[in-house]
Amino acid sequence: MRLSMRLMIWFLTILPFRFYYGISTFIFLIMYYILGYRRNVVEKNLRNAFPAITDKELKSLRKEFFKHLADYLIETVANFHMDKDAFDSRYKLTNTEILDDYAKKGINVIMAPGHYGNWEWVSYLGLIINFTCIAIYKEQSNRFVNELIMHSRGKYGLLLYHYHEAYKYILSGKNPSPICLYFLADQRPAKESKVHYIKFMNQETAAFRGMENLHRKMKGVVLYVHIRKVKRGFYEVEFRPLNEPGKIIMEPNLTERYFQALEENIREDPRYYLWSHNRWKYPPTDEVTTSHEQ
Predict the structure, then answer these.
(1) Which of 16, 165, 237, 264 has the fewest CB within 10 Å, making it most exposed?
(2) pTM of this prediction?
(3) What are residue 240's DSSP bridge partners?
(4) Sorting pLDDT into bands at 50, 70 and 90, what band is 8?
(5) pLDDT at 293
(6) CA distance 92 to 238
């Protein structure tokens, strides 16, 4: 099975880019019409996030999401053979000058995208910015998938660490250049984790506080990575500061600011968020206090 998957991925990587979206359409048809992949989860998430949505609007939005999900999957494979020129033409970074400014001043950066648009391609930044680039990485249960993701994210110089390993690396102070930490902060915490709940997309949402803990040690700036899908295979990316460099205590806190920025991004065009993720699987219990009740 692993060999056949490797051969298939190798075959895909040698194809010209124009063939990718024909394959993506085929994947969409399989996922949506034959497998019905996570359709119940997607529908539940959309209904809860947009309570006023009509059945017709929900059906259209759900279908458009699955078209994008197929595009994202095929673009992740394309990542294996894309070079800097391909990224430059398809992934427009609109304000990298602020990154240059932070690098010159020696300011550490936490780069915080959400599961929106194509968040994998952000990893190519390692080719063009003057930071030591690190990513918080959660190991996948499937060993083969784990290897693919490690290779895909690491090929552009991104150093991959588990959360506690990254924390130790940052505290060590051994790095000669400023750090750019890539952190997807909208993942669902484990059920047994001690979590913080906030209001996000009309729902009480369990949130990691790890980004704030890391920021206290790095004392830099957190950038929300605002992604727009311009058309199939083309994106625009804007880096939006969530705090002034070095400012640690703020109201609302960084976690809330992050989710506010992500919600704004989603509401601009809801088709491109990862609705198939069971993000709201664990609602708050009676014992949990949400941030807006404090």
Answers:
(1) 16
(2) 0.89
(3) 224
(4) low
(5) 45
(6) 9
